[in-house]
Each structure stands twice: as C-alpha cells, then as structure tokens.
Predict the structure.
Amino acid sequence: MITYKICTNDDIENMYEAFSIGFSDYMVKFDITLERFIDLFLRIEGNSLDSSLLALDNEKPIGLMLGGIKTYDGVKTLRCGTLAIDPDYRKVGVASQLFMLHKELAIKNDCKVLFLEVIKSNDRALNFYLKHDYKIAYDIVYYKNIDLNRLTNPSLQHLVVKEISIKEAKAYYDAYDKHHINWQNDFDYQKELLHINYFGAYINNDLVGVIAVAESGKIFYLHVLNTHRLNGIGRQLLCYAKDYLKLRAFVISFINNDKLLNFLQKCGFEQFGLSQYEMYRIV
C-alpha cells in the first residue's frame, strides 16, 4: 500500500534513498553522499522538512518531493526543490498525488504561487508540469569564459573597485536593480554559501556597479547602473575579481536579460550545458 507523509527528521535516510533511486536514470547524474544531500538540499537550496513530502510502499521509499517556502519577488512562494520517483513506480499516479499534496501545503501555508525549474530538453517532466497547470515564465541559460587571458582590463582611472559586504550588495540590488534573479543565484541562496566575494565599483564615492563571485569563478550577480553602462565598468569588475581571486574561468547563469547577454558575449563568454525553464502556477 502506497502512503504519503510530510517529512520529519526521522525520514532523512528514506528521503535520501528515494532521491538516489529516483535520479538513478536522470540525464544529469547525481552521485552524492547522505551528508552532502542534507547540506545541499535541506540547507543551501532552501527546502525544509515540513514542506517536503515522502511516498512509501509499505516501508520502501519510492518518491520524494522537496519543498521550500519563502517570499520570492515579493510573493509568498512554495518551490518544488526536486521531484524524484522510483522508475518502477512511474505512471501509476505517485507524482500526481505528490503534486496534489504539495498544492495543499501551499494553501495551508498561505502561499500564492507554486514554482519549479525544469531542464528544457526533459520532455517527460515538462509535459507533466504543463499537465498540472504550470506555465513557463523564464529561461535560465548558462555561460562560461575559460580563457580569461583575453579579458582585458580597461583600467579606468576615475573608477575605484573594492570589497563590499553582501548587505551592501543586496542594498544596491534593492535600490537600483530589481531584475528577477533565479532561485539559485538570489541573495538568500548566497547567504547559505561560503567563499563568495563581493566587489563594488565606485565613482566619487557613489556605488555604480556590483559583482558577486565565488572562489570557484561562479558569478552570482553582476550589475552596473544604467547611467554608467558602456564605459568599461562591468569589464573592470570582472578583471578585478579575476585578479583578486586568481581565477582561470568564469561561469554564470541568468534569466532573460539581453543586455547582460550582449555584454558577456563581448567579454568572450559562450553558452554551455543545459538550459532550463522557470515554471509557475498560481494557487
């Protein structure tokens, strides 16, 4: 008999087992330890036990739907952090039942929106989400630059670049940007990570641009004020981060931002890997 439950601390090993078997045939391979599963999915990714669901056949874990609640773009949102179904239990209604219970959790917690990400080429999952009334809202693309020697520094004499705090970077975003940031780049997500550096570009003590970049070279945020673009400030922020962190490559993901895309391409970035959709459903 298949049963469903909200997750508790006692379920973590079963959650990990359901995740592992559910992703055993996935197009992106996951080979992570239990400890890494807990750290990534129950801390960094923002999922919580009381917003996550587990499916069991008697005592055998066969399905998992992770969930996390937060105010996202000003709206209380329940995100599906992952959906994993044992291959032997697909197309028998397990995923649909998890989605129904997921929606009930959203209503119970006064969430207004359901949200998830899906790889564009995963037709099976995409069609399933469309069937459950999710709508495509944004594209997420991935770019990299693996030849930073070709990234030249404009060395603007009137510009000062220096380290700033995440608090200062977030204040800049709130005041001047407000462009939608994907879940795995936003400032709440960044707070859970170590080794992210923040640099600000200043003209006459005014902050005109910000970059947030990890020691791995992953860029979480990059922005220059509209009134100061096309003057080399973004490029100088990249070069400062490259030199300060002694980086050999940059990687960045972002959503529906043609201006950023054009800038990155001019700086030698190229698209790579899989792209995703962000999908939403109004509760």
